[in-house]
Design goal:
heterotrimer, A mainly alpha, B mainly alpha, C mainly alpha, A: mainly alpha, two-stranded antiparallel ribbon, 2 strands, 2% strand, C: mainly alpha, Helix Hairpins, 5 helices, elongated
Chain lengths: 493, 492, 123
């Protein structure tokens, strides 16, 4: 009985818990509730994945309204995989949150943070699970609005400013998506994705379809922070509180990438996107330029959060490269990189949070010599950083390898070469931090610092450990991604 | 004990050593005893495995798929077995030596040192037994990462610079060239599994890749394997001299550079195949690059007054011998190259042990200051002389045999110029190695060496052992030849 | 395309005009309040786009009356309903934006983006 209702529970539980947190109004009670809900959500995601693996995709009709009139929730390999790591990162970051928050927020306001966080989680999961295009917009806005609010919680006065800029960009993006949905609805008279896919005339159809696709693509580009529409991202990641950055960096952009994959592979067809329209060349070009420029910019950053932010822009490029290849190998690489990058970047931002907690700064200069006073945190950076570079035995290698072989298989030698070069750029910016941590005389802050509190260190190590585990054992990363990709391209694995 | 268990033990024991080191970090004696015990067991296991492998068995172990379609698997063949024997055997003596060296220097972070050392050995074992290119690559990169903390052990500005060059060159070559080469191989051959006679010579790959592309691919491989230190990607080796001497021993003899040249041989034999290289002539250019490296590095070595720097360039030169062996694309060349892994390892480790012992006992690093030291440190300088003979290729050093086979290889492929290069290089070797012990045994000109004594026992015993080893290898060489012959014979 | 056709699409012209006006304000104005006004105009244009697309020629308001004739044509109610949601989202966005502007003004003493930029550079 409950097993059948899991898709809706996944959304409803955090959605209801959010106002409950506000009503509770008590820091510890609200936290306990939020934490429990996050882990329950994760549990449900796991259960859904198991169901999908056992008995194939699940279609859930909301309120019993028949598809395509009612809203449909679809759980297939791709969506369950994305929900798995979104809820997983949500739960682990929530576990990590309370200690870190003490530095960012008055204790009396913590419950509001928890409520907003749950809303954000709801929105992200909703975007993954829903099979209804307008619903995607609604959930997108739920997650975006709560993200703007979360970002503005940062300690410096630049945080609200960054949130505002993000809000303006984000709203433009969301409105573009809304226009696109409207035009599609006009053409097909339905909002259900599968139904649209069925009805939309991709070959020789009216120009409106093209316009709709363009609006949706540009809107999602803003949300994904694809170069050159990435301007909101560095400030947002830099000035948001560490916890928020961990969560947002690990999940938000990935979910938009997910929506983009759905758009191309489920609503439209890869033929339409890549043959009728030259989106693949465009994507490859933007991705490569983005990867190289963002990586180069990252090298020159003094603020570690900003450094990682630019690295995130570069990493989005890898996912786009995979998506633009339109074959199982490339798509697998793109999808698995969503997962791996969520782990790696989430983990690294958690490490940054640990440093910031003890040293009160995210300036690289203030971190000098912290390797001596905070050995465990520093080591976590090294491991996470190796993952970012894509060294074997880390998750980053798996995605890099898959992307490389996919590119070579497609005879895209330029892509393969530039991709490898860019991972050397990653080596430079990661190692700059490593050298600062280990080879410099301690700065004032670093000398006074102690190892990060356990409440932060443990969750960090869980994520960093996962980076290593999923670099060796890919049963639940690459294999799932492979199945998802085969599913999308309707190839039997 | 089944061969499967032996492979598992070979890979697992170094990790066990790492755990023990971490566990007993606070008790140095227990910690080192753990490493010694484990390394001895490892050597014993490898010896057992060797008897099987050299009698024709090819035990395998598959760890399963790392990613869809890409497996991590191990297959033990004679070349890898020889390398594993060298690495595990030298691990024991290096550990003994490291204990003496590190303690008499009161080095910090010894636990980290021994732990990283153990991981490097694990990586060496994994590389030696690798059954496919992906596994080899993973092991190769693991070793780069694990040795970085060793190279930068002192955590000084100089160590940082050295580490930067070390990591920078090894990482960028492996990522930019080697990874690309492996992916390319995969796209051509649809497999990464090492095959007798070469993956690219399999019928499946025929016609999929043109000749000039094969040459390019070979270039990506040999330059991608930066650990083989082929010029112009050799700078990391001298840069890594900032590390403590036991690390230099690890780099130059036990594991790191040996993984490099071993990979080159492995690629030549099992990816391209000797016959394919011979028939197409794609490796001709490589012969000349290798020969140039041999001569240039020898010349550079002559100009160095710092003992470790001179030895480092000597290593660059000697490694190019092995690459040359691979590039000659003949049975004798490959066998000579494989044999030279063992010979050079034994000889060069002795030389580095000596350099370290001299430093421990006298704190001297420059060759010009070493006059007369041999009289107070007779064992050290005696060992140095023996090891030098082996490196030069004079009996009774083991190196005589490997160089003999390499020369034979040049004759087999009709490259008289290369033969001449080898001869000249041997003369150069004499010129830069022999003066050191001679200077040592000359009477001291000043009183600076008075009051000096031989290095601690823990340092002297290992270097005497390895010096004797160099001589023993001279007599074992025919055996090694017999072990390596099967890799050059394709049965298909 | 004849003049009649062009004029017949007047609702789209209005939508496009509003959309571009709003978009221009968002891009060009440095005053944050004005940016938000522009954003609102931009969103409003989309509301209109949806609502006009729901209109069916000769269609009645989609309310089923018991005395209605059987062949009566109704307008499509769905776009209007969707826009109810979108309006709520728009209000939430505006409210949040205004709240942020209040905080920015508290911190910087201005809502002009270029002045804030100068202030940030100085600090």
């Amino acid at each position: 009985m409950i097993a059948e209702q899991l898709p809706i529970l996944l959304i409803v539980i955090p959605l209801i818990a959010a106002p409950l947190c506000v009503l509770l109004g008590h820091r510890r009670a609200a936290y306990a509730l939020a934490l429990a809900v996050c882990w329950v959500t994760f549990g449900i995601s796991v259960a859904l994945l198991v169901q999908v693996q056992q008995s194939g995709p699940i279609s859930y009709e909301l309120g019993g309204w028949a598809v395509p009139y009612g809203i449909e929730y679809v759980v297939d390999y791709l969506s369950s995989f994305v929900m798995l790591f979104v809820s997983g990162m949500g739960a682990i970051v929530m576990t990590y949150a309370p200690t870190s928050l003490n530095r960012a927020l008055l204790r009396s306001k913590h419950y509001l943070f928890h409520a907003t966080y749950l809303l954000c989680l709801t929105g992200l999961l909703g975007m993954c699970i829903t099979g209804d295009l307008f619903n995607v917009f609604v959930f997108l806005e739920i997650s975006s609005l709560s993200t703007y609010a979360l970002v503005s919680l940062g300690v410096t006065r630049r945080a609200p400013l960054a949130a505002f800029q993000y809000l303006v960009m984000g709203t433009i993006g969301a409105t573009f998506i809304l226009i696109g949905i409207g035009l599609l609805y006009q053409m097909t008279g339905t909002l259900n994705m599968a139904d649209i896919a069925h009805r939309v005339q991709t070959v020789g159809g009216p120009r409106t379809v093209l316009v709709a696709f363009a609006f949706l693509t540009v809107g999602l580009f803003i949300k994904m922070a694809v170069f050159p529409l990435h301007s909101w991202l560095p400030n947002t990641y830099t000035y948001a509180p560490s916890v928020v950055t961990c969560f947002v960096a690990a999940t938000a952009a990935k979910v938009s990438v997910y929506a983009f994959i759905r758009l191309i592979y489920t609503v439209f067809t890869p033929d339409f996107a890549f043959e009728t329209l030259p989106l693949d060349t465009e994507l490859t070009g933007l991705a490569l330029i983005g990867i190289i420029t963002a990586s180069l910019t990252a090298i020159y950053q003094d603020n570690v959060k900003r450094l990682l932010a630019y690295s995130s822009i570069a990493q989005i490029g890898y996912m786009l490269l995979g998506i633009s290849m339109a074959n199982v190998a490339g798509l697998t690489a793109g999808i698995v990189h969503m997962f791996n990058h969520a782990l790696i970047k989430g983990g690294l931002f958690m490490v940054v949070g640990c440093f910031a907690y003890r040293m009160g700064s995210v300036k690289l200069d203030d971190w000098r010599g912290a390797g001596k006073t905070m050995p465990y945190t520093s080591f976590a950076w090294v491991v996470g950083g190796l993952g970012l570079i894509g060294v074997p035995l880390t998750a980053g290698f798996v995605s890099k390898w898959l992307l490389l072989t996919a590119a070579v298989e497609n005879n895209q030698w330029l892509v393969a070469g530039l991709m490898l070069v860019s991972s050397l750029l990653a080596l430079v910016y990661v190692w700059r931090v490593v050298e600062t941590l280990y080879f410099a005389d301690p700065s004032e802050q670093a000398a006074a610092a102690r190892e990060a509190p356990r409440g932060m260190l443990w969750p960090t190590y869980v994520v960093i450990g996962a980076v290593v585990v999923f670099g060796v054992w890919t049963e639940y990363s690459a294999v799932l991604a492979f199945q998802a990709a085969s599913d999308l391209l309707e190839v039997t694995p | 004990m089944t061969p499967l268990l032996m492979i598992q033990l070979s890979l697992g024991l170094p990790l066990l050593a790492m755990l023990l080191v971490g566990l007993f970090g606070k008790f140095p004696n227990l910690r080192e005893a753990g490493t010694l015990a484990v390394s001895s067991v490892l050597f014993w296991v490898n010896c057992n495995l060797a008897t099987r492998v050299f009698s024709g068995e090819r035990p395998q172990w598959s760890l399963g798929e790392m990613m869809p379609g890409f497996e991590i698997g191990f297959t033990v063949e004679p070349l890898g077995m020889l390398f594993a024997l060298v690495a595990s055997g030298l691990w024991i003596v290096t550990t003994v030596y490291a204990i003496g060296y590190m303690r008499s220097h009161d080095e910090r972070n010894q636990t980290r040192f021994f732990a990283c050392f153990a991981i490097s050995i694990c990586a060496a074992m994994a590389a030696a037994f690798a059954g496919n290119l992906l596994t080899l690559f993973v092991a190769y990169e693991l070793m780069t990462i694990a040795t970085y903390p060793l190279v930068t052990h002192h955590e000084t500005e100089k160590a940082k610079q050295g580490g930067r060059v070390y990591l920078g060159i090894l990482m960028s070559t492996s990522v930019a060239f080697l990874m690309l080469a492996i992916a390319w191989t995969w796209s051509v051959a649809d497999t990464l599994e090492f095959a007798d006679g070469g993956i690219l010579a399999l019928p499946h790959s025929e016609g999929k890749i043109r000749e000039w592309q094969l040459g390019l691919l070979l270039g990506l491989f040999v330059f991608g394997i930066g650990k083989a230190a082929l010029m112009p990607f050799h700078r990391w080796l001298p840069a890594a001299m900032v590390a403590p001497t036991p690390v230099s021993a690890l780099l130059h003899a036990v594991a790191v550079v040996k993984v490099g040249v071993f990979s080159v041989l492995k690629v030549a034999v099992y990816v391209f195949g000797i016959d394919l290289m011979h028939d197409t002539g794609i490796s001709d250019w490589l012969c000349y690059v290798a020969a140039a490296t041999i001569l240039l590095a020898s010349l550079v070595a002559m100009t160095k007054d710092n003992l470790k720097a001179r030895l480092a360039y000597s290593t660059v030169s000697q490694l190019a011998y092995i690459t040359l062996g691979a590039a000659l694309a003949s049975a004798a060349g490959v066998i000579g190259g494989g044999m030279h892994i063992a010979m050079h390892a034994m000889g060069k480790i002795t030389l580095f042990f000596c350099a370290g012992a001299i430093y421990v006992a006298t704190h001297k690093t420059e060759i010009s200051d070493m006059r007369g030291l041999g009289r107070v440190m007779p064992f050290t300088f005696g060992a140095f002389l023996i090891a030098s003979l082996s490196i030069i290729g004079l009996p009774p050093g083991g190196g005589a045999w490997s160089k003999w086979f390499l020369a034979l290889g040049t004759v087999e492929s009709g490259q008289v110029v290369l033969m001449a290069a080898l001869m000249i290089s041997s003369l150069l070797n004499i010129a830069y190695l022999i003066p050191i012990p001679i200077r040592g045994f000359l009477p001291a000109t000043d009183e600076s060496s008075s009051g000096l004594r031989e290095a601690p026992l823990m340092c002297v015993v290992p270097l005497c052992l390895t010096a004797i080893g160099s001589i023993v290898l001279f007599f074992v060489a025919p055996e090694i030849f017999g072990w390596l012959v099967p890799i050059t014979q394709v049965t298909r | 395309m004849s003049t009649e056709q062009v004029l017949g699409l007047y609702n789209y012209w209005i939508v496009i005009f509003l959309m571009m006006t709003g978009f221009y304000i968002v891009i060009a104005r440095k005053n944050m309040i004005k940016t938000i006004i522009g954003l609102n105009i931009f969103q409003t244009s989309v509301f209109l786009l949806y609502i006009t697309m729901g209109k069916v020629r000769d269609g009645e308001a989609p309310i089923i009356r018991p005395d209605a004739e059987p062949d009566v044509i109704y307008s499509n109610p769905l776009p209007s309903v969707l826009m109810l949601t979108a309006i709520v989202v728009g209000i939430a966005t505006t409210a949040l934006a205004l709240a942020l502007i209040v905080r920015i003004r508290e911190d910087y003493g201005t809502v002009e983006e270029d002045k804030i930029l100068i202030l940030d550079r100085e600090s």
